[in-house]
What does this fold into?
Amino acid sequence: MERTKEALAVGLLLIVATLGTLYAVQTFFVNPPAAPTPTVREVVPPEPAPAPVPAAPVAALTPATPLESEPLPAPTTPAKPAESAPPQLMVTPAPAQTAHPPSRPRSEAGTPATPAPAPTPLARGRQLTDQLYGGQLKQLWAAFLPALRAEWGSFSAFQAYRAGGLKAYGAETGVLKEEVAQDGGLTYYTRTSTFERGPRTGWTLIFGLDTQGRVREFGIVGAGLLPEAQHPATP
It folds into this structure.
């Protein structure tokens, strides 16, 4: 009995499945699926181009009416500078100021500045010696008094004298003695020195100075030939 029931159930299921299949086939052929409706787009026609506007007729060119020139003003005589300048711009030249010489420097107390003291005879003699042996002959020649320059004759002769001594004996190498003495209103500066080419005893340079330090006498003698000073002076 159970097998019969199972067979009936299976048979019913087959019948139902067969009927469902037949119904589906009948439905497909009787009512086929509708085709998709095509979408219609609206075509907008292009806007027409604007019609060309006819150009206005060109008016005939007519010659321009010449402008009437204005009459030129009559030339006038230029005014004088004094008349044309406004009164407030007139410049009156100031009187020239008299130049005054610069005042001399004064000390703090209001008295004139004291001039620098003159060099001592020793310092002056050394200065003149440096000019002679240092080749500053023009400065030394300027210190000679006119009478002494006349004894030499010319500056060229004095230059030749110095050039001969330098060539024969060379430069000064040492100082043996310096003295300052007074005699006959002059102050004498003497300097005994050795030189590159002798003699061993050296040469003595002589400057006779006045009160202002100018050279009145000049000479170079062998050492020992000059007598000792009788009136030594304070350097």
In short: Residues 56-69, 73-96, 229-235 have pLDDT under 50 and may be disordered. Residues 121-222 form a domain with the Nuclear Transport Factor 2; Chain: A, fold (CATH 3.10.450.50).
